[in-house]
Specification:
single chain, alpha/beta, Rossmann fold, 10 helices
């Protein structure tokens, strides 16, 4: 029987956006995911995301009959990291895709930025609430984002999937963002700073995949993670959004990483 794999998406990008990468994984694992974390009122967004972690744990508990490999991108990597620390019995291993697991000094800076009210200057969430949120149809949504610099490197299939699976009926015959801007903004405003306090507590095998052109983490952050969490660090071509830029390559890389974990069991 194929191992179970739970995938957790990045902030603002529903899991369906990763369809092309997930298709690679589905050839090797029984894949599941929570499509839009943070939208269930029972698990509200709060500082350092404890309720979102509870939402993730609850989903894994109820959707898989055996421990999973947890794979998460950015926000999703934090979900896998915290969930594996709290409930190691649910995991065979975790793969973290370019999450901002900063070392103590930069994490303290995140805490200070939240405390003093300028966290929006350090995250991509500055203009979230002013972003356009309605289009006549998927094609116009695709064209709109295709002109944005953030999406210039995306695989066209991934951008099409974002327009299709990242949108929903807006009640007026058009489309709106499925991942609501208010939730996206709240998640950016509450970026975790407390993960260094969990040093030494990750007990499941873990690999951190850093984008070669990402810049989310510094070399010192990566060394700190390796030393205090036992995470092996590898690299993947691309920016922070490499799963959408190189979906097939990323999927194959994850298969290789998990294959090595399986062989070491």
């Amino acid at each position: 029987m194929q191992p179970y794999l739970h995938f957790a998406h990045a902030n603002s990008f529903p899991a369906g956006t990763y369809r092309k990468m997930l298709a690679v994984l589905e050839g090797h694992y029984q894949v599941g995911y929570l499509d839009t974390v943070g939208h269930n009122p029972a698990f509200p967004v709060s500082d350092c995301w404890p309720h979102l972690v509870r939402e993730t744990i609850a989903f894994i508990e109820t959707h898989y009959p055996a421990p999973v490999y947890g794979v998460g991108h950015s926000l999703g990597g934090f979900m896998m990291f915290y969930a594996a620390i709290l409930r190691p019995d649910l995991f065979r291993g975790i793969v973290i895709l370019d999450s901002p697991l900063m070392g103590p000094m930069r994490s303290h800076g995140i805490w200070l930025a939240k405390k003093l009210g300028f966290i929006h200057k350090l995250t991509p969430g500055k203009n979230t609430l002013q972003r356009r949120d309605s289009w006549a149809d998927e094609a116009r949504m695709y064209d709109y984002f295709a002109r944005k610099a953030l999406f210039a490197r995306w695989d066209p299939d991934c951008l099409a999937d974002y327009a299709r699976y990242g949108s929903e009926d807006n009640g007026k015959g058009g489309r709106r963002l499925k991942f609501r801007p208010q939730i996206e903004h709240a998640i950016y405003q509450t970026l975790p700073h407390d993960h260094p306090s969990y040093r030494g507590q990750l007990k499941v095998p873990g690999v951190f995949v850093a984008g070669t052109q990402s810049g989310v983490l510094k070399a010192g952050d990566l060394r700190w993670m390796q030393h205090h969490f036992g995470l092996k660090v590898v690299h993947q071509n691309g920016t922070h959004l490499f799963p959408m830029e190189h979906p097939v390559e990323t999927g194959r890389h994850i298969v290789d990483i998990i294959g090595r974990m399986e062989a070491a069991r």
